[in-house]
Specification:
heterodimer; A: about 110 residues; mainly beta; 7-stranded mixed beta sheet; 4-stranded antiparallel beta sheet; about 50% strand; globular; B: about 110 residues; 6-stranded mixed beta sheet; about 0% helix
Chain lengths: ~110, ~110
């Protein structure tokens, strides 16, 4: 079955530590996205990538970094500069086109502070 | 910039009741509109979409019509079930080709037997 796999499902970060969230897709989609979800806040875009080796900042990129070395993979690193990292992180992918392409989501990673 | 406004929840209904969740948007150009559903502890699933004015998206008994004159995309279902309990997100994608989504804050639906 085609889909998006996020790992791990739960992750704990210590103070001053960087952590990396994995996102892999086998849908052959060109575009991939990272969102942060906080209770009552909806989803906010962190980073997105339309093509391999290229990515753009979203609305809340500070304290986060990404890479896109392969079409299938778009890992997100939450750095120590992100002072409030506790949230539910969602990865998505889509075809590119005229803006009417729906995004397909993984099941998310819940990050907490130890 | 683009924005999406949804009615605040939770919306509490009895099984077989009629559901409406309001969604209005602000955008330039001709956005595409989406409804996503999120069950507890899971990611979002596409429920339905509409890509131009007067289009009606439908799926699993849910419907929404793209109303450009009122900038609205209200979600409706004639008879809800307990299994419909979830959080529903309205979203828009602008026409620039980047397919980035702007989401509303979500509306929780609770259906009791």
């Amino acid at each position: 079955d085609g889909g998006i796999t996020q790992s791990p499902k739960y992750l704990f970060r210590k103070e001053g530590q960087n952590v990396t969230l994995s996102c892999e897709q086998n849908l052959n989609h060109d575009a991939m996205y990272w969102y942060r979800q906080d209770p009552g806040q909806g989803l906010r875009l962190i980073y997105y990538s339309q093509i391999v080796n290229d990515f753009q900042k979203g609305d809340i990129a500070e304290g986060y970094s990404v890479s896109r070395e392969k079409k299938e993979s778009f890992p997100l690193t939450v750095t120590s500069a992100q002072k409030n990292p506790t949230a539910f992180y969602l990865c998505a992918s889509s075809n590119t086109g005229t803006g009417n392409q729906p995004q397909h989501f993984g099941d998310g990673t819940r990050l907490s502070i130890l | 910039g683009d924005s999406v406004t949804q009615m605040e929840g939770p919306v509490t209904l009895s099984e077989e009741a009629f559901l409406t969740i309001n969604c209005t948007y602000t955008a330039t150009g001709y956005p595409s509109l989406f409804w996503y559903v999120q069950y507890p502890g899971e990611g979002l699933q596409l429920l339905l979409k509409a890509t131009k004015a007067d289009d009606k998206g439908s799926n699993k008994g849910f419907e929404a019509t793209y109303r450009k004159e009122t900038t609205s995309f209200h979600l409706e279902k004639g008879s809800v079930q307990v299994s419909d309990s979830a959080v529903y997100f309205c979203a828009l994608s602008d026409s620039s080709g980047y397919s980035t989504l702007t989401f509303g804050k979500g509306t929780m639906l609770l259906v009791s037997p």
